[in-house]
Amino acid sequence: MQYEAVIGLEIHAQLLTDTKIFCGCSTRFGSEPNTQTCPVCIGMPGVLPVMNEKAIGYVVKTGLALNCEIPSLSRFARKNYFYPDLPKGYQISQYELPLCGEGYIEISVNNSRKKIGLTRIHLEEDAGKNIHEGGGNESLVDLNRAGVPLMEIVTEPDIRSPGEAVEFMKKLRSIVRYICVCDGNMEEGSLRCDANVSIRPVGEAELGVKTEIKNLNSFRFVEKALDYEIRRQVKALNDGVRIIQETRLWNPEKSITESMRSKEEAHDYRYFPDPDLVPIELDKSWIEEIKEGIGELPDARRERFIKEYNLPEQDADLLTAEKAVAEWFEQAVKSGGDPKTASNWIKGDLAKLLNEENRQISESLLTPKHLVEMLALIDKGTISGKIAKTVFEEMYKTGKDADAIVKEKCLVQISDEAGIEKIVDEILNNNPEEVERFRAGEAKLMGFFVGQVMKETKGKANPKIVNELLREKLS
Ligand code: ADP
Ligand code: ZN
Ligand code: MG
């Protein structure tokens, strides 16, 4: 039997507000436990929540960027359950009237575009965190995170493979970072996802029984967990075992998913409208204002880069995934850099250097102006393309400009023909055997001669002149 996978994601994205959703406590990550708390977010009796307007604006902004319907009326609801990290005994969330309705995100699948439907986006508060440290019999609770605003984005079951799920997550991360509503930091948990997955015989329209894998906090885990879970379900069905609807956890040490609990139903949570918060009516003019603040999104920018700068699709993809990279590139072009050349340096040498140190482009000492000045030195023949790599790395490390580095390190290209000719003659004299073999037809020895000249000149000889001279003398 051939099966296909059906996947739907529920993504939690922490909003970039300075303060929590219903109180003035800071949302900063990594502080000492319970230092960012107050009577509201630790659930003292008698306190009242006050809505953070910015959080609502951010969810609406996300909805507009993701082609969602924005209903005029929205409401908050209490989701009731008991757990030590939830001091009130209920989470303030949304149920029947979320802030955003249906929308979609487009992803690339095998060189074509595919729309993944969104069911809804709603706003809710995060819970605290249980800490099981020291191996004793106790658990500790840190409530710094309790009351941090989260938006939950729910997709339709439109995703068909772990690869598509990763593409979707990458696109979503790119967009929320572009519009500055979430930092997308998966390691710190500000973007995490629950993956729902089922399988069904190819051609079957009805959905199979799904399992939900909780809290995947990296692209790699999303891919591996789904991949494992699909195989597990296929094997179960082939072995005649029924799949039960349940919540599972990814175990990264063993690379397997494990059963955590049987699935709870909506009625288990006894949702009801939160009487402490008034329903939200969104002002049309406010929605318009938010829309204007969105700016150019990754897909539009990608199309523009292809048209305006004549870049291959692959370059445009890489340059526009991160807003800061796209802006760096455009600055280089505006300062006179050739688009394709600038793109090559960004995708190649710059990406490699940044990667090595796990740095963002915004933290780079090397500026677009540095790159353009260096490209001018190559064009003028002052330095060779090969030396440029050294200059580039030095600019990256020190933040000095190309000119200064070339002078300081004596990297000026040797273009004086007489000087190079002397070295070429020397090399040919010292290697009579190779000269003989080259003349007898071993053409690949050209590389050997060029290499010897370069070695002798520490890479500074103008390669064009070296090649011309060698060809002349060896003919
Ligand atoms: P639940 O009632 O378990 O909360 P929902 O219908 O609200 O389920 O859907 C939650 C998520 O699971 C959504 O992203 C949805 O697309 C996805 N989903 C629903 N049914 C299936 C299924 N049979 N297989 C895979 N994903 C599914
Ligand atoms: Zn508080
Ligand atoms: Mg549901």
Detailed description of the structure:
The protein is of the alpha+beta class and 475 residues long. It folds into three domains: 3-289, no CATH class; 296-408, no CATH class; 417-474, Arc Repressor Mutant, subunit A. It is 40% helix and 19% strand. The chain contains 15 helices and 15 strands. The protein has helices at residues 53-65, 162-178, 219-238, 284-292, 298-309, 313-320, 323-334, 339-356, 368-380, 385-398, 402-408, 417-430, 432-439, 445-456, 463-474; strands at 3-14, 73-74, 77-80, 90-93, 103-109, 112-125, 129-131, 140-142, 149-155, 191-201, 211-216, 246-251, 256-262, 272-273, 280-281. The strands form four sheets. The chain has an eight-stranded mixed sheet with strand order 5-6-9-1-10-11-12-13. Strands 4-3-14 form a three-stranded antiparallel sheet, with no helix packed on it. Strand 7 and strand 8 (140-142) form a beta hairpin. Helix 2 runs antiparallel to helix 3 (219-238) and helix 12 (417-430) packs across helix 15. The longest helix has 20 residues, at 219-238. The structure holds adenosine-5'-diphosphate (ADP), zinc ion (ZN) and magnesium ion (MG). The site of adenosine-5'-diphosphate has 15 residues, from strand 1, strand 9 and strand 10.
